[in-house]
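Forum: Protein Structure Q&A
Topic: Joint prediction for protein chains with partners

I've read a bunch of threads here and the consensus seems to be that you should model interacting components together rather than docking separate models afterwards. I'd like to see that in practice. Below is the full input, 648 residues plus whatever partners are listed. Could one of the regulars post the assembled result?
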Amino acid sequence: MNDPWLPQQAVVMEKVMETPDVATLSLKLADTAAHQRFRFDCGQFNMLYLFGLGEVPISIMDLRQGLVQHTIRAVGRISRKLVALEPGANLGLRGPFGNSWPIEEARGRDLVFITAGLGCAPVIAAIRRVIAARPDYRRLVIMQGVKHREDLLWQEQYERWREVPDCQVLLAASEEKQAPFAWSLGMVTTLIDKARFDVNNCTVMMCGPEPMIRASMHGLEAVGVGLENCFVSLERNMQCAVGLCGHCQMGTPFICREGPIFRVPDIRQWFLLEGY
Amino acid sequence: MQQSAFLPHQALAQLFDVLQRDGYTVVGPTAEQGAILYRQLDSVDQLPVGLVDHQAPGRYRLEQQAHGRYFDWVGTAQGLKPWLFTPEQPLMVAREVEGGLRFESVHENVPPTAVIGVRGCDLAALALQDKHFLQGEYPDPHYSTRREQLLLIAVNCHRSAATCFCVSTGDGPEVTGGADMVLDELDQGFWVRATSPRGSALLARLPTRPLPGWHKRRSKTLRKRARVQQRALPSRDLRTPLYQARDDETLWQSVADRCLTCGNCAAVCPTCFCSRVDEESPLDGGQSTQVRRWDTCFNDEHSYLVGHVVRKSAVHKYRQWLTHKLAIWHDQYDRSGCTGCGRCITWCPVGIDIVEEVQRLCTEVKAQEPHE
Ligand SMILES: Cc1cc2nc3c(=O)[nH]c(=O)nc-3n(C[C@H](O)[C@H](O)[C@H](O)COP(=O)(O)OP(=O)(O)OC[C@H]3O[C@@H](n4cnc5c(N)ncnc54)[C@H](O)[C@@H]3O)c2cc1C
Ligand code: SF4
Ligand code: SF4
Ligand code: FES
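Posted by a regular:
Agreed with the consensus. Here's the joint model:
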């Protein structure tokens, strides 16, 4: 029997400080064969383990030049230490876990990404895959909300996406006094009205704080998008990531197993209730 | 092969002998600190002869009676859960070594273990825990190692405690499956049935006698007596009323006002499977161990996310426990998560009664329905 509790040794190869409290770590698995075998589907996550501290779930931002990339915000005990790691540091990794964004099924449709804060990390790889297969998709709309302009990670990346044919990039800052050039003021949900896409033939992918997801659901329904075409990535406390610890249950689904990505109607009855 | 025989009371010691000679650790009921618990036993003398348990909401009391029966008590304080899903389980050891970290699996050496005295509800709960720990995509190796070593000698209940409601859940008082051997305890001894190949092999080595002839009628009478229970759930599948109740927080206020959110109910519940993972590093460093410990949805940490707790109030906590157990479980594991053992009622410090709460919720939900 494979031991689901056993991490693999990983080494930090590169580190980029994206903002004062957000870092992207590029990891290599110490075991070369395991490293070469490592694959992931966009939207999956790993459990990252720090010696003497424990482990936390972190989305896989991308796999680039063979390195597993994670973008992490320092918010607590373990994430703070992860962000403080320097190249050469060792950690443990279990994964990948969870399901993925429906980018295969969405071929031939308009794609809409709505993210806020660090919610953009779990969709970066998906957006890159879609752009690499641009002719297979129709319009592309990328909406991202932040508090302040300088909170936006990967500004150049977003600027480059503006150049992609038939791709609309919409940015919103909720706590700026004046809108920066080519930005809007307010929450990311205010962007939905500005987005141009076919509400009858689109797939929407959302990730961010729960109030923002709820507001987006309202906003999307208001412009006529069927929620059965909307997907959301969710978070709950996770102790195991392998369906055993029970912490990640949101009503029926175990988020580590049936999620983290859900078709909105499948999770809606639980998601809209406080306390699940 | 012989499948059914009579084992006199005084021959029970030989059952222990045979098991111990075969290398089994024998686990069975014994009285400890005023309650019956499954413990590792050396001899038949440790069994709770003549002891009977009286259970009520928030109460458990043992009474010594004059008879010589071993299994006339009904409920142990804990079921089989701690023997398989142990309250504390090391999962992984990390070591700092030259050139990085080394991770090691934890393997336990578990001897073959025979548990004597398990009840129908214990076995039903075991089947549910098997489903959770073994039948998913990532089976738990620690549960699995212990489970593989288990031999189960079950006993049909001939009494019910006031807190039992297994008739309504369909999990007792008779054993419905999952054991290697099933006993009915009669006045002079046991009617023994082997219910698996291992059970048959064991039975063949016991000093049994031919069945007396009256054993069936007597057992039937005793089992019928146990079927008379004071509590019953309104139905086995409570999804419809409970999903309705879920959506109205006011219906949960009266129970939340009494609930201490101590989590005793989940700790004694033989099907609750939640755990947290702690990191333990001795001060001298160099090595760190991940340890899994029982956890319950009554703890704030259970639903903690940076900056907020999803289930902070007693309303949200009790609602999670009850809706999970009796409704959500159907969607996850194809049946209710309750086997009617009554432990959560007995061991609740303020005597909250799950059956009473369900009945109330069902009534209140019904009262809210528009009349035609
Ligand atoms: C599927 C998934 C993907 C995630 N992806 C990312 C990502 O790409 N980048 C990123 O920065 N963060 C991500 N998170 C959130 C990240 O896991 C938490 O920020 C992190 O667990 C906080 O741990 P801490 O010890 O620093 O904080 P503390 O406040 O000290 O938290 C204590 C413990 O609570 C648990 N916990 C707290 N918050 C969360 C949470 N939001 N989700 C799950 N468990 C939690 C953890 O076990 C944690 O160790 C993701 C969470 C999930 C569930
Ligand atoms: S919910 Fe209560 S009665 Fe049902 S199995 Fe758990 S402890 Fe026993
Ligand atoms: S009732 Fe609570 S403690 Fe028990 S399994 Fe469900 S979530 Fe876990
Ligand atoms: S994280 Fe443990 S069950 Fe999902």
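The domain at 8-97 of chain A is CATH 2.40.30.10 (Elongation Factor Tu (Ef-tu); domain 3).
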